[in-house]
Each structure stands twice: as structure tokens, then as C-alpha cells.
Amino acid sequence: MTGRPFLLALLLLTACDDLSMSQQKRYDVYRRAALWADGAAARTPPDGTVQQGALADEAALADPPPVDAALLQRGRERYEAICTPCHGLTGHGDGMIVARGFPRPPSYHEDRLRAAPARTLVDVITNGYGTMYRYANRVEPRDRWAIAAYIRALQLSQGARVAELPGLAEKIPEERP
């Protein structure tokens, strides 16, 4: 009797083939594939499929998070890491890539971009616009909102006048010769 369970367990273990699931043949993306009629190894997803995580991303993009110091700090970090090569530190469209011949992006300080809703900025980060390619797979949805909030802060900081900010004039020391 003790030999039968052992034999049964041994038979079950030999029937399992973990390697066939983890070490499957694959095609390189741009190689020809005899398996498909068109010969292309790169396949487009079937109609009606949803990318993994797409529903969660869509939900995260539905409503902007509340703007607070932590969101602005995160927006600054992501903006400086991702956006400054083209848009520059102040958002005038004078980044290093532009200095090397890439087309200049519009300044965030143009009237039309100051008037644009934050959702427009998030949509451009997500889907791209003009020569800017999409960053949907490079920037998390919450970070897109953070970048948009930071761009708003840049717009405010670059267009502010000392006279319009209460108490600021008293905090800035006078220049002395």
C-alpha cells in the first residue's frame, strides 16, 4: 500500500513539464514567420482586446488628483527628467535637444497653452502631438497629472509680477550699489 501513493506521485511529477511553458520557441519581431500567412512575426492584437493595465490607466486618468506639495514635487522631478530635454527648465521650449537642431516645441507661456485645460496637457503627454511622440508607456498616469500641475506652477512663476503677489516685495531685499 505504501508503494502505490509513491508511484502515483512519481507518475504525476513526470507528466508535468514546466520547461515547455517557460522555454517556448519565439520569433524575433522583424523576422519572417512561416506560421502566419503574411509571414510577419510581429502581430497586431485582435480586435476587441484590451492591453493589460489599460483599464486601470484609464481610471487613473479620469479625474485629476488633488494638487498638493507632494504632487508638485513629483511633477517637478518627472518634468526635469522627461520634459526638460525639449521644453527646457522653465518651459520656454529651449531645451538641449532644441539647441542641437530638433524642432522647437511651443512655449508653455503662450496664451493658448496658458488657457488650455490641464487635461489637454495630460492628453498630449499620453498621445503625443506634432513632433512630440506619445509617452503613455513611459509616464504613469498619476505622473502625467503631476507634470501638468507642475507646468501650471511654471506658468504662474514665469508670468508673476512682484506687485501682484502680496507680501513678496517685503521679502525681497533691495539691491544696493
From TrEMBL:
One Pfam family linked to the record: Cytochrome_CBB3
Domain Cytochrome c: 70-155
Record carries keyword Metal-binding: yes
Keywords: Heme, Iron, Metal-binding
Iron recorded as keyword: yes
Single GO MF descriptor: heme binding
Tree of life domain: Bacteria
Name of the featured protein: Cytochrome c domain-containing protein
